[in-house]
């Protein structure tokens, strides 16, 4: 990992930590995506589950039907502390998904929702997921892919040529990355979700409340000027519907099974 990637990861962890108390109220998309992904896991209250990128742990009470015990891992100390306040997991571990400090074949199931897009090296994270799974173990993952927040990206492009929205990997690239892992079989499901907002400031506030307001490669600059936001609002307003301003998210669900039994 480069120095720049390490610094960005630290900023991501800090942003999510700052949002640990506001996250759940703002997590409309995150909750919908996670609950639909959780339905893909077999309801057998057996084995050890890993929740990778657990956030504040709002979903943890639902794990009772899926495992005997679970381990919660997150990059953010603040998020992990919020999750740990429930005292539902067997262990709470602060760690980077690309350097997962868990033993080989130590968990029977892995659940990870909307974490993978924050990894500089998704192949490393997927490799660790495959490594820690027991033979026959199952992983259910979700991640944002190319096309997410396209309306916002296009509106910013009308104002300046700087990067304001994260670069999300194309579906085919992620599929190719997963397929390179030996000993794993994958199925893929593509989903699209659209949320609506009264104005662009409401979208920006929600992203900040989620802690999802860090952009890789973005230079520090002031974006609070009234004139700038007026121009951005005018550009974004071209996409307005009767429901409001749309923000579309493209999501890839990855369901993997490790060879063996």
Task: Please describe the structure with a list of short key phrases separated by commas or semicolons.
globular; alpha/beta; Rossmann fold; seven-stranded mixed β-sheet; 261 residues; 9 helices; single chain; 7 strands; 34% helix
Q: How would you briefly describe this protein structure?
A:
The chain has 9 helices and 7 strands. It has helices spanning 3-18, 23-26, 28-38, 77-84, 122-132, 150-157, 171-179, 200-210, 226-236, and strands at 48-52, 69-74, 91-94, 107-113, 133-144, 184-197, 245-258. Helix 5 links the parallel strand 4 (107-113) and strand 5.
The biggest beta sheet is recorded as:
7 strands, mixed
Give me the count of strands.
7
Number of helices: 9
Structure classification: alpha/beta
Topology as H/E string? HHHEEHEEHEHHEHHE
What helical percentage do the residues reach? 25-40%
Write the layout of secondary structure elements.
Layout: H1 3-18, H2 23-26, H3 28-38, E1 48-52, E2 69-74, H4 77-84, E3 91-94, E4 107-113, H5 122-132, E5 133-144, H6 150-157, H7 171-179, E6 184-197, H8 200-210, H9 226-236, E7 245-258
Parallel strand pairs: 1-2, 1-4, 2-3, 4-5
Antiparallel strand pairs: 5-7, 6-7
Helix pairs in contact: 1-4, 6-9
Question: How would you portray this structure in words?
Answer:
This protein has a single domain (3-149, 166-198, 248-258), classed as Rossmann fold (3-Layer(aba) Sandwich). It is an alpha/beta fold and 261 residues long. Helix 1 packs parallel to helix 4 and helix 6 (150-157) crosses helix 9 (226-236). It has a seven-stranded mixed sheet with strand order 3-2-1-4-5-7-6, with helices on both faces. The protein is globular. The chain has helices spanning 3-18, 23-26, 28-38, 77-84, 122-132, 150-157, 171-179, 200-210, 226-236, and strands at residues 48-52, 69-74, 91-94, 107-113, 133-144, 184-197, 245-258.
């Amino acid at each position: 990992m480069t120095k720049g990637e390490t610094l960005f990861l630290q900023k991501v962890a800090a942003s999510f930590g700052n949002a640990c108390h506001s996250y759940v109220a703002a997590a409309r998309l995150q909750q919908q995506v996670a609950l639909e992904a959780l339905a893909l896991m077999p309801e057998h209250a057996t084995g050890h589950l890993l929740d990778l990128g657990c956030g504040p742990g709002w979903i943890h009470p639902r794990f009772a039907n899926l495992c005997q015990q679970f381990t919660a891992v997150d990059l953010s100390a603040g998020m992990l502390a919020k999750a740990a306040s429930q005292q539902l997991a067997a262990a709470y571990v602060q760690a980077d998904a690309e350097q997962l400090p868990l033993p080989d074949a130590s968990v029977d199931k892995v659940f990870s929702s909307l974490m993978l897009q924050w990894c500089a090296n998704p192949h490393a994270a997927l490799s660790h997921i495959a490594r820690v799974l027991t033979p026959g173990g199952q992983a259910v993952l979700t991640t944002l892919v190319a096309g997410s927040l396209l309306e916002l990206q296009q509106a910013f492009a009308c104002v300046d040529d700087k990067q304001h929205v994260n670069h999300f990997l194309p579906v085919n690239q992620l599929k190719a990355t997963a397929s390179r892992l030996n000993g794993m079989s994958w199925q893929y499901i593509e989903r699209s979700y659209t949320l609506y907002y009264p104005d662009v400031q409401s979208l920006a506030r929600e992203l900040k409340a989620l802690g999802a307001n860090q952009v890789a490669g973005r230079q520090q600059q002031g974006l609070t000027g009234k004139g700038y936001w007026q121009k951005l609002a005018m550009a974004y307003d071209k996409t307005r519907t009767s429901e409001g301003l749309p923000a579309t998210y493209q999501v890839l669900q990855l369901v993997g099974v490790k060879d063996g039994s």
